[in-house]
Amino acid sequence: EVASDAQIIFVLGGPGSGKGTQCDLIIEKYGFSHYSAGDLLRAEVASGSEMGKDLEATMKEGKLVASSVTIALLKKAIANACEAGKRKFLVDGFPRALDQAEEFEGKVLPCKLVLFFSCPMKVLQKRLLKRAKTSGRADDNKETIQKRFDTFLNTSMPVIDHYEKLGKVAKVSAEPAPEKVFKEVEKVMKANGF
Ligand code: UP5
Ligand code: MG
């Protein structure tokens, strides 16, 4: 079971905005448990399961997999960590659509904070094309990157707008170097009692 006193931060931002990079830095300093929805999906693909084949095809199109899949993976991971005594969680790259946010909050827990990494798409494209040379990620190619951007702008940005209205969003520019971005993250963490 997910503990009712668990604290969840949604870490959001466009493809390549540095969600994973900043989560690593947050873990080092603040000792959170980190779950990347994308990493959990890629692990499922790598397992070679039948479901993994469908997931791979969806991700290659830059589309969103069914929220029942991501929520089940996240809930299981968070519940296991709660049983091991963990209470602070970074949920990276989820929710990516408004209905996913609502479903997660109903089935798991409301988030305490949304950490939003903002960055122009031009900068993100450059980063992802560079990473494409070594990442081996099936969605790191020019065509899929464009589709990921389209999905982000059309479907995922409304999630940010929704939480902004609730006063839960801390927006940080993801354009400077990682250490500089993290300085701003530290301010946000402090302001939120971490
Ligand atoms: N880098 C990082 N920070 C930098 C900085 N400040 N300055 C310069 N360079 C910087 O970083 C990306 C690259 O940029 C790296 O090379 C890094 O060194 C450099 P990273 O930290 O990996 O950024 P991140 O935001 O984590 O990028 P990622 O590619 O993981 O973002 P996506 O949101 O595209 O990928 P994700 O894994 O979350 O999702 C992949 C796909 O899974 C989705 O497209 C979708 O099909 C599916 N999905 C769902 O369907 N549902 C979900 O809930 C989640 C995923
Ligand atoms: Mg990532």
UniProtKB/TrEMBL annotation:
Main location: cytoplasm
GO molecular function: AMP kinase activity; ATP binding
Top-level EC class: transferase
Subcellular location: Cytoplasm
Superkingdom to which the source organism belongs: Eukaryota
Catalytic activity entry: UMP + ATP = UDP + ADP
EC numbers, comma separated: 2.7.4.3
Keywords: ATP-binding, Cytoplasm, Kinase, Nucleotide-binding, Nucleus, Pyrimidine biosynthesis, Transferase
Transmembrane segments annotated in the record for this chain: none
GO cellular component, one term: cytoplasm
Pfam family, one: ADK
CDD domains (alphabetical): ADK
GO terms (BP aspect): 'de novo' pyrimidine nucleobase biosynthetic process; pyrimidine nucleotide biosynthetic process
Family as reported in the entry's similarity comment: Belongs to the adenylate kinase family.
Database matches in HAMAP family: Adenylate_kinase_Adk
Protein name as it appears in the record: adenylate kinase
